[in-house]
Amino acid sequence: MPSTRSPRITVFPNDRAAARALARRITDALAANPRLVLGLPTGRTPVGLYHELAAHAAHGHTDFSHVTTFNLDEFLNVGPDHPGSYRQFMEQHLFSRVKIPPERINFLNGSAADPPAECARYERAIADAGGIDLQILGIGTNGHIGFNEPARQLQSRTHCVTLKPETRRSNAALFGGDAAAVPEKALSMGMATILQARSIVLLANGRSKASCIERVVNGPLTTELPASFLQLHHGVDILIDKSAAERLER
Ligand code: PGA
Known about the structure:
- By secondary structure, the protein is an alpha/beta fold.
- The chain has a single domain (8-241), classed as Rossmann fold (3-Layer(aba) Sandwich), CATH 3.40.50.
- The chain has 7 helices and 10 strands.
- Strand 2, helix 2 (47-58) and strand 3 form a beta-alpha-beta unit.
- Bound molecules: 2-phosphoglycolic acid.
């Protein structure tokens, strides 16, 4: 049963059950509001969710043709056609499988000539779309959301970030298994960009996320664990499997 506190935590027997529940929440939200504005993550965690959404689309149960999407982040100096780009990741796992009109898919352009201008453009595009209705998040083992890495200060708006070594290692698979080939910098929505979403769902699976999830839920707000700021938002759901819930008291 979901708890009543905020963030609300729901523990599932496995990652597939969590992905199914979130896919159902998204398709229900789309049925209620076909013009839903979705914020989307990349990473291993949402792959099952995208698979479930593709299945809904394949069965003709859900119409994605009026949805608008904004992805959280993209590597810097990586063009949208680069096989390691998050744009290509999304193409592979979701966009090639559900019919979202290309003009409704919004992405940071990692190869933009003027990155600060590109970040400002993205903020304007989110505002012009009326803001994000439902932001889906993964979480790094270091507590990052988007590419807002642990630091003494966090940036509020979409900005250029320097990636931590552990983040580059966890993205190595996109660059032929070579962490050194992962770009050192990226563009990311900022903390306020994320926290302005009307509702937020954080998805996390596996024991490697358990300590981080415990601190996100029970720990102090700290820039050293960016996801802890989710405690400030009233509409956050955390969907986790049993392993990621290991450190939480029941
Ligand atoms: P993961 O990454 O889903 O591959 O664990 C999550 C993240 O870094 O946000």
